[in-house]
Amino acid sequence: MLGIILEARDGIRQSEIAHALKVKPPLITIMSRKLHQQQLIQSVQNQFDTRAKLLSITPYGKKFMKTVETELYADLSELLTGLTEQDLITYHKVLETIIANKKRLGHKS
User: Are 41 and 2 in contact (CB under 8 A)?
Assistant: First the structure.
């Protein structure tokens, strides 16, 4: 959820987050309250619709995400030790094919 909010530079509606994550909006409401309490996100006014509030990441949230990404990258780097670039390209192609087949067959996530 934080990643989605971070990518939406001007803020994002909770309903858009729910759609992106394929979850019900009440779950996003609960999660956003917790993230507000942790000062990772904030509510901002929608410049196009003053009735709507958008969620945006706080400076503290950006710092937190950078720390998390750094740790994940370090872990991933260790996990990928011994794999060649061609191995990773092949793995990526296999995943793309599986996802395409899933969509083609109409399976839901």
Answer: yes
Beta-carbon contacts of 96 under 8 Å, excluding residues fewer than 6 positions away, are: none
DSSP letter at 22 equals T
Q: pLDDT-derived band of residue 108, with 50, 70 and 90 as boundaries?
A: low
CATH code assigned at 30 = 1.10.10.10
Share of the chain above pLDDT 90, in %: 65
For residue 85, give the amino acid letter. Answer: E
State how far the Cα of 87 lies from the Cα of 30, in Å rounded to an integer.
40
Number of domains in the chain: 1
The token pair at 62 is 């950006």
Q: Domain for residue 17, yes or no?
A: yes
